[in-house]
Model the fold of this input.
Amino acid sequence: MRESFLSFSPPCLGEEEIAEVVDTLRSDWITTGPKTRRFEKEFARFIGAEEALAVNSATSAMLVGLAAAGVGPGDEVITTTMTFCSTVHVIEHVGATPVLVDVERDTLNLDPAAVEAAITPRTKAIIPVHLYGHPCDMGSLVPLARKHGLLLLEDAAHALPARHLGRMIGTIGDLTAFSFYATKNLTTAEGGMLTGAPELLEKCRLWSLHGMSRDAYKRYSAEGSWYYEVVVPGFKCNMTDIQAALGLHQLARLPAFQRRRREIVARYTEAFSTLPELEVPVEREGMESAWHLYVLRLHLQRLQIDRARFIEELRRRNIGASVHFIPVHMHPYYRERYHYAEESFPTAAGEFRRLVSLPLHPRLTEEDVEDVIEAVGDIVTLHRR
Ligand SMILES: *Cc1c(COP(=O)(O)O)cnc(C)c1O
Done:
């Protein structure tokens, strides 16, 4: 058994990131400025998007996207119950009504047939979540959104970089929100990015900084002017140059990070496929997952222990593990406000009980990976029926 605790998802920061942050701190500009603008440009180029807008989180990116698209009270927004709570919170924040739907069995991504069935005359937007980094079925969702004139705002917090039939996530829907939270594939500690068409992104930019018609950098830099106008009651969720300093170097390292993630995924899947007590994650034909998370599903009827005990046993063997996610409809706020039962979304509720996320990050060594495999194998062997 390993001696030290294996962290579930530590950040992967190097000397380049540290030096760039120090350079920013020694400069005259620490908030949104030249490094944020450069990060936006380089991010857009990496994705192949026309433009990008840096903000302080994916949550803010989605909030700004909904506000800029005019989604508000009386409107309905369809999203998945199998997501982090903030995907749904932002719908509440703009005063609209979230309409949750169930997921597909293999990917746990929202089911396009369930989305179609949930569309009403009040529906204004769909928020697909590319769960664990695996692209949603955009081949069904894009025509559906078009047919009904709905905003397609993608939660790509896990999906950097991912491809759907060769197209990068971030170039498909009307707006795509990425997260640079501490545990994500690319981190700026806290941070986020929106990609989309330039006209809509300009509205988002306005909403992301007080609704002011010029941002602070332009106002105070040499070529700028002191004049601005407030045209909408915007939010305050701009990215700082300290964060962008991290992002610039994380972006340069992202391809290497992804190669390492895929190696680890291949090794895990090779090892776990031999155990009938486990179900390994899939990558559908034509899809390229960002592999943000490696999520095993337990065949509980083949085991004498439940998921909670499985994670406890991993912890005893010094392996950090987690669960992504508790379905949103099972949390008290949403359950009580919208009168959901656990079985309102049977696939999500049923699969939730079987989920275990294992450590998956570029800092894992070969020994770390083998330690995880050994610990999982040991638990299965000891507790199989
Ligand atoms: C992390 C996460 C978010 C929120 O990202 P922030 O940048 O922390 O706001 C949203 N959706 C999903 C699916 C996430 O995992």
DSSP finds 13 helices and 13 strands in the chain. Residues 254-383 form a domain with the Aspartate Aminotransferase, domain 1 fold (CATH 3.90.1150.10). The chain has a mean pLDDT of 97.
